[in-house]
Design goal:
With 338 residues, the chain is of the alpha/beta class. The protein is built from ten helices and twelve strands. The strands form three sheets. Strands 2-1-3-4 form a four-stranded parallel beta sheet, sandwiched between helices.
């Protein structure tokens, strides 16, 4: 029986990667072991030693992202899919949520305040300027949040109370592409882990608390009906996006859960952040998911997973193409007469 390895690729974090590896190795599986990924060389198209790799760091290290794409060609099941991870961003997430019927805050996309390097005014002939600021502000309202359309954490996030705040902050964002979003004044807030697109952990959360106290909530348990609705929205979003390791944040206003942030494919899982009980759940279910993927992995084949947004598009294209005459291969040139 061939031994399969599950690797975890990570940076400074310690508690989750170490506990993840230890948990799998204590499961007593005959043909599956886990370890931190170790890279000494990367040859194009080479087969990889790992059946599964959990990616926790490639969003910050381009070399790792390229390594993971190469590993996937050799048959490694990379979680999350490095190709989709590279293409996805938060504004698209919101647009997809609208199509899926999941409530999201009103949001508009903004061009970068400063022109990107190596561009000039002639590069923006298709952009009307100034933008319709009055209509944008009327649509979003105040207060509002401005945040990068791509990227994680609270980097370059601004809370704005009026136009003066907006234009001052907008200038500071320089070449970042931003989005302006209405503020959801919430009565309840949840941060939800979704693993393997089927295991969901709904955690009460208070983003206005200091970081180490955000999972300390004194409002009492949420209603079962509300938790069920949140779970349904989480699964809808993660299945459409194709993320096997993700967190979704939901803010509840007037009983309606709004998806605030749901592009977190390498979410914080540190025991000191999420608390012991949540940490143990994440470790257990991440290990369970990784083992399931290792057991299903077929060496040398494509073992990546894709969300329904992509797979449905492919299915639609294939259906539309069915029955159409296929282009003929060009005729082979005749050998010259001797």
């Amino acid at each position: 029986m061939t031994m399969k390895k599950i690797g975890i690729l990570h940076g400074m974090e310690r508690s989750f990667p170490e506990a993840f590896v230890e948990h799998i190795n204590k499961m007593g599986l005959k043909n599956i072991i886990a370890e931190p990924v170790m890279i000494d060389k990367v040859e194009q198209g080479e087969l990889n030693d790992y059946a599964v790799i959990i990616d926790r760091i490639s969003q910050d290290v381009p070399f790792y992202r390229a390594y993971l794409k190469n590993a996937s060609i050799g048959g490694t099941a990379v979680i999350n899919n490095p190709f989709w991870f590279s293409a996805d961003e938060k504004f698209f997430n919101n647009a997809l949520a609208v199509r899926l019927g999941v409530p999201v805050p009103k949001t508009v996309l903004l061009p970068s305040h400063d022109m990107p390097t190596d561009t000039s005014e002639e590069s923006f002939r298709n952009l009307k300027f100034p933008l319709s600021w009055e209509k944008i502000f009327e649509y979003i309202g105040w207060p509002a949040y401005m945040k990068p359309h791509s990227g994680g954490g609270w980097k370059s996030v601004y809370k704005l109370n009026n136009m003066d705040d907006f234009f001052k902050a907008y200038k500071e964002t320089e070449q970042l592409v931003m989005m302006l979003q209405e503020e959801i004044i919430f009565e309840e807030y949840f941060r939800c882990y979704c693993l393997g697109r089927k295991y969901v952990r709904v955690m009460q959360y208070e983003p206005r608390n200091p970081h180490h106290l955000r999972y300390v909530v004194n409002s009492g348990p949420a209603s079962e009906k509300l938790v069920k609705k949140v779970q349904d929205y989480v699964l809808t979003l993660c299945n459409a996006l194709g993320y096997d390791f993700n967190t979704v944040e939901m803010a509840v206003r007037n009983g309606v859960p709004y998806a605030i942030d749901f592009c977190n494919p390498a979410p914080d899982a540190d025991v000191h952040s999420v608390g012991q009980e949540n940490f143990e759940w994440v470790v257990e279910h991440a290990a369970k998911m990784a083992v399931e993927r290792a057991e299903a992995q077929k060496p040398g084949k494509d073992n990546l997973t894709w969300g329904t947004f992509v797979t449905d598009s492919v299915a639609t294209f294939m259906k539309a193409s069915a029955g159409k005459p296929q282009a003929k291969a060009p005729a082979k040139p005749k050998a010259p007469k001797k």
